[in-house]
Amino acid sequence: MALGIAEASLGRHRRKSIALDLATHRVVFRVDAGAESPLSRPPITGAAAVARQILARGTRFAPLARHAIVNGAAGVVVGPPGAAIAVASFTIVRSRIVAIDLITDRDKLSGLA
After folding, report:
1. Parallel/antiparallel/unpaired status of strands 65-70 and 73-78
2. What is the CATH number of the domain that holds 30?
């Protein structure tokens, strides 16, 4: 079920309506870009803020995303096979996304197939 929710979310992301999947006030978006990365930032909270961030920065990567199980949860791997540039996992509660964890740290992604 969780993978189905993530799949539907990815489809809507490609159509720019990701906010439909986010729990209203409890959603959090965390990015792990690596400790020394200029892309590191504090978590973003709230459906509107998370949706703005994803649409502003992530829409261009949606065509490169493919569904995956990430640490036992629904997620996506972004990039061509063997050359992932990002991995995202979704925490889903009552059919709503309540957390998105995005890893773009190249060291952490280096072992992915």
Report:
1. antiparallel
2. 3.10.450.50
Three-state secondary-structure class, residue 30: strand
Q: Supply the range of the domain harboring residue 71.
A: 2-109
User: β-strands 65-70, 44-45: how paired?
Assistant: unpaired
Number of domains in the chain: 1
Amino acid (1-letter code) at residue 93: V
pTM (2 decimals)? 0.77
pLDDT digits (tens, 9 = 90+) for 59-104: 889 899 999 999 898 999 999 888 899 999 999 888 888 999 999 9
DSSP-derived letter for residue 22 is B
The long-range contacts involving 34-40, CB below 8 angstroms and separated by at least 24 positions, are: 34/104, 34/105, 34/106, 34/107, 34/108, 37/104, 37/105, 39/104
